[in-house]
Amino acid sequence: MASSPCGSSNFDCGLEIKTRSVEQTLIPLVSQITTLINHKDKPKKSEKTLCAIQRVGQAVSAAVGRFVSVGEAIATENEELKEEMGLACLEARRAGNAIAQLTEVSSLEQPESDGRGTVFSDRTGMVRAARMLLSSVTKVLVLADRIVIKQIITSRNKVLLTLDQLERVTTFQEFVQIFSQFGNEMVEFAHLTGDRQNDLKDEKKKARMAAARAVLEKCTMMLLTASKTCLRHPDCESARINKDAVFHRMRYALEQVIEIVTDSRPAGEAQSVLPASLYTGIKDFKGKVESLRDSLYHVPVESLSAQLEALVEQMEDFTDSAYTHHEQREGLLQLCSLARQDTHALIAAWTQAQSAKAKEAPEEVELAILKTCQSVGELRKELQKIAVGRATELLKHHSEHLALQALKAAGGEGNLEAVAEYARTLSEQKEQLVETCRLLCHVSGTEPLEITCIHAEETFHVIGPQIVSAAQTLALHPSSKIAKENLDVFCEAWESQLCDMALLLREISDVFDGRRGDKKAYLSLPRPGKHSTNLKTAKAGKLDSEEQSTIAKLGLELRLLTSDVDSEVERWEDQEHDIARQSQSISSMAYSMYLFTRGEGLLKTTLDLFHQAEMLSEQGLQLCSHLHTFSTQLLDEEKGVILSETEKLAASCQQLQMGAKTPVQGKSATFQKVESSIQNTKGVMTVVVFLLPVCNKLLRKSKSERSSLESPQNWRDKQLPTAVREDAVNGKSSNGFGVKSLEQHMASLTFLESK
């Protein structure tokens, strides 16, 4: 939805709606009330029209009554909400009764007989009742939403308490016991915050939440090995530094989550504002230039020159970088000079038009506007080319992770001098990556992607020194298996961030090319510990040039299928729908497999490819689960089509999974397995390409034919966490009230088609 249902001028409820579930719950009520107020006021009303209006009024009143009962139950269970919730429920009940009275048939047939107002004679009264109802219902929903926030805060507090205990332990036995509790609490926190992240309307908050949750996920494994290392070597300073950094980062990420959820900042801190990016600056500049066409006398054109100079100054991140090639620097400076010339020419043409008192922009001004927009457009393209090119080069250069391997080897040999030498190399790589993330932020194109770039920059900045301290610890204790394991975990985190950066790079390119405007949540990254058995028993290999040539056609066919999936997902009105999101994730993994056939991308060995194929098959089976859920909302004939294709998809996924897990020996057999994996992935993608438009069509059809009041509940599987009682937080079943209960009652309303 483009705007909140309570955000219109007619029904301004005065409350900010921050989650999709609350917004979607209000849509049915808005539809009903809009129908009542916008009916055609004909002199003669048919009996059918009068009865239909009464049915709507009664339905609204009855649903509000049930809704209020749920709200009152919530107030009983939550003392801190009792007074506010009680008042909101009372207002809602009054408004519902007023609407029922205004739509009563006896009054509608003889509107003037007893002096009572009706929906026809007292439109002002109906609008007043409608406004009160929307305001009070929204307030009840927002108050109920506070319970979800309370659950997250409570969960965070438990995690913090256990984190403090973990930091103070002195024995392995105590650590194992407390860490087990900590792991369970982190799982609960991850579920609660994951649901909240998906429910947030604000894309910037979503991106910030995703970044904070990613830190917590990666730091959990780091905390385990860093703490074990510190316990085994309690007098080692580098081990202590390593451990302290992990605890500090986890606490910071936990606080970030709470800031996002509660929409607050620590005392004394100003609201965080993203640094201005060149993409945004150039977009604003072009917008001001183009506005001269319509407001020749209202735009202070002299400010254009100052705005352009500010952009040129920002470009110093590119031109002053030691890693920018000389030719690129010269090219940028020439484009800046051209943009200056065109801007000065525009100002001159505009000044002349004003002197001539022209009523509209003359041809000279129009031409100058076009030239200025073209020159800054070329400047933006060059900036994007430099940033993406730099990132691509870095990822390719560091794909072998030579510095990490050298640090591991030096640490294992106990060679502190070599560790110091390779630490300097890693530090230089870190600075390159940090600077490149900064450049990508300038050209990312959307605020969520800018936030992701900043997160990547911070991650490289923090993990680099942590790897060094872990390597120093290993060098001091070269025979320590725990110290070696700890270094491995931090190196894996670095490699994982490089993978994330490659996905980020693709998303930025998609935005620039106009293929995708929002950041997607990719599910393709493997989780620590998963598939570890296969990884250890299989032997990794690479395709030679002849094998790449042989498999090139298959790879190209797979690439075309990924483009088809991306195109189909773009056509979905709700691209966050489970089916669309899961399909996009599968497409992302398939694209990585295509890059492997070209000898590019992050999948370097056949082992990487088989692992990716296994992950893709799992995502495909998850998509089958979403499709089964979707089919329960369809008619028999439509359901049959979806289930038939779902069976094909499941069979293709199982075939891909079995093939990926089957062990092979020898070069020829390995290549046949590669070929089979690509072929089976094509089979999966072919079914997905067929299903996407069919599901999209059926979804739209259902939304138009079904009651608009039932659709929000039926089509969304994941809502706000429903539990209110403590036992629900602990994973037990509960009949407690929550936002979903409210949604279910609101969804019971029936829809009146406009007459």
Automatic annotation (TrEMBL):
Give the region (Disordered) as residue ranges.
703-738
List cellular component terms (GO).
Answer: cytoplasm
Q: Which Gene3D superfamilies match?
A: Alpha-catenin/vinculin-like
Report if keyword Transport is assigned.
Answer: no
State the compartments where it is located: Cytoplasm
Spell out the InterPro entries in the cross-references: Alpha-catenin/vinculin-like_sf, Alpha_catenin, CTNNAL1, Vinculin/catenin
Query: Which controlled-vocabulary keywords does the entry list?
Result: Cytoplasm
Q: Which GO terms describe its biological process?
A: cell adhesion; Rho protein signal transduction
Q: Does the keyword Oxidoreductase apply?
A: no
Q: Where is the composition biased (Basic and acidic residues)?
A: 715-729
> By what name is this protein known?
Alpha-catulin
